[in-house]
Amino acid sequence: MSPPLPKITVVTPSLNQARYLEETICSVLNQGYPNLEYMIIDGGSTDGSVEIIRKYEGQLTYWTSEKDSGLYDAIQKGFARSTGEIMTWINADDMYHRQCLFTVAEIFQQFPPVKWLMGANTFFNEAGQCFLYEDLPYSQRWSRLRLRLFDGKFIQQESVFWRRGLWEEAGGYIEQNYSLAADFELWLRFSRYQPLYTTSFILGGFRFRSENQKSYEQRDQYLQQVTELLARENRGALPLLFYRLLIGLAKAVPKRKWRNKLLAGILDLPPKITFDREHGMVFSRKNDF
User: CB within 8 A of 237, min separation 6: which ones?
Assistant: First the structure.
C-alpha cells in the first residue's frame, strides 16, 4: 500500500489581482490533490477579487479580506494558521503546472534528504502562455555558496516548496523588514540549515505583466535589499574572493563539458532530481548536467 499523501499548505496573498486571481486559484484547486490546505489572504481588494474568492470558498481551508501590511504580512498570516507537512506560497498572478502538487509529494516522499525543493524555472506571459529562457547548464542548481556569491540569477519562488521541519528550524517566520526581498532573506536563512535541491520537473511559473509588477518596476530597490542581505549574511564568513578567483579560472577552461563540471564542483551544487526511463525519479550524479 502506498503511503498517505502528505498535507501540502499553499498560501495565496492577494490585493486587487482580479484579472489573474481566478487562474491562480484554479491552477491550485484543479490539481485535484486530496490533502491540500489552501488559504487565500486578501488585503482588502476593491476590484472584484472577493467575489472571485467566494466562488471557491467551499474548496478553501481559509480565506479573509482585510487590510494588512503588505505581501509578506499576508503570507505570514497564512502560515501562522497552517498545519501542512509541506509548505509554499503562490502569488495571485502566478500559476502551478498540471500535477505539480502530486510531483512535489512524490519527491519529498521518495527523497528524505530533500528539505526544500525548486522546480525547473518556467514563466507565463500576460495571456497565460508558458515559456522558458535558455540558460547556463547550472543556472537552475543552487548551493549556499552560489547564493552568497550572487551571480544575477534568482531562486524561483513560484516553484519552491519546503518541509515544515525546515521552516521551524529556520525560525518559522517571514522577515517583515524587507518589503521586496523577504523571499531572498528566507532562502538565505534556509541555506544555513539545508541545501536546496532542484528538479527538472516543472512545478510553478512566474507571470510577466505589463503593469503594476513590483519585481520589474522596483527592481533597483529589490537589488538594493538583496545587497544589504548578502552583506549581512557574508559578514564574518570565509571571504568570497577566493571562490570568485577559482570560478574565473574554471571559466577559462576551453572544453565546455569540463568547464561546467569544474564550476559545479567549485560551487558545490547538490545533485538534481531528474527523470530516468527505467527508474523514474532519480538523483543525478553530482557534477552532471
Answer: 148
Under DSSP, is residue 177 helix (H, G, I), strand (E, B) or coil?
coil
Helix (H, G, I), strand (E, B) or coil at 110: helix
CATH code: domain 8-283 is 3.90.550.10
In angstroms, rounded to a whole number, what is the distance separating the alpha carbons of residues 188 and 207? 24
| Residue boundaries of the structural domains of the chain | 8-283
How far, in Å, CA of 237 to CA of 223, rounded?
Answer: 21
**pLDDT tens digit string along 196-209?**
999 999 999 999 88
Question: Model's pTM, two decimal places?
Answer: 0.93
Residue 170: predicted pLDDT: 98
CA distance 8 to 79: 12
With a cut of 60, say whether residue 80 has pLDDT above it: yes
User: What are the tens digits of pLDDT across the range 254-263?
Assistant: 998 888 889 9
DSSP characters over 219-276: HHHHHHHHHHHHHHHHTTSPPSHHHHHHHHHHHT-SSHHHHHHHHHHHHTPPP-EEEE
Burial per residue of 227-237, b for 16 or more beta-carbon CB atoms within 10 angstroms, e otherwise:
eebbeebeeee
